[in-house]
Give the backbone structure.
Amino acid sequence: MSRTITLCAITGLVFATAPAAADWFTGDGHKMHFPQLPDPSGWDVYGVTPMMLADDWQCSETGPVSDIHVWGSWRQDNPGVINEVRVSIYENIPDDPTNPDSYSQPGALLWAQGFDASQLAIIDPYGSGEQGWYEPAAGVAVQNDHHNFHQINIENITNPFIQNVGEVYWLGISLTVEDDPTGPMWGWKTSQDHFMDNAVWSTPGAGWKELYDPVIDPPQQLDLAFVITPEPGSLSLLVLGALTLVYRSRQ
């Protein structure tokens, strides 16, 4: 009877320690160099189709990219309706060390998939702060534009991209939003954490351009806020395995 009770306790603890569905908070697991956390006093960079934004990450654990979390905001805190989040993964083209003007950027498209509203879980608001709005293609930069920011969670992706440990990839994000006469505009939040080179942006046929802070001189690089996480099932199995070893060692 005591073994049955202990195993039930282990099972309950597995579910208690597994990450809550559809969210990510500081201290949760990740499958990249480190989480690029949102900057509550940073910028939100316009990211509605045909605008494309991308940032790089280094894989820390071989396996599927089945859970992606990004942070963003609506301009002037005027929320819209997201129709689709288009996610793309690219190979990395490193900078040319012999060319001081070169920079790393996305290369060949490796994987892409669209996710409609029914496949998204959004925490809104996730946080707040005095944030700016930036449209690099139009040259628009407005400080103290809005306060709230949210987290968009895409989990349990079917047919996911398989990443390999040590490899560098680029994550591309572009949204489509529902037409609205009030003109809601969505932006991908910049990060307080920096990895390798700048994030980049692109419009059709324009190629990739580096993303810099629009008001700081000399120019300061901008990275974007996202995290790629272990699938919840894998974490549960790891916890179950560890607890089972503890249980057996006490028998």
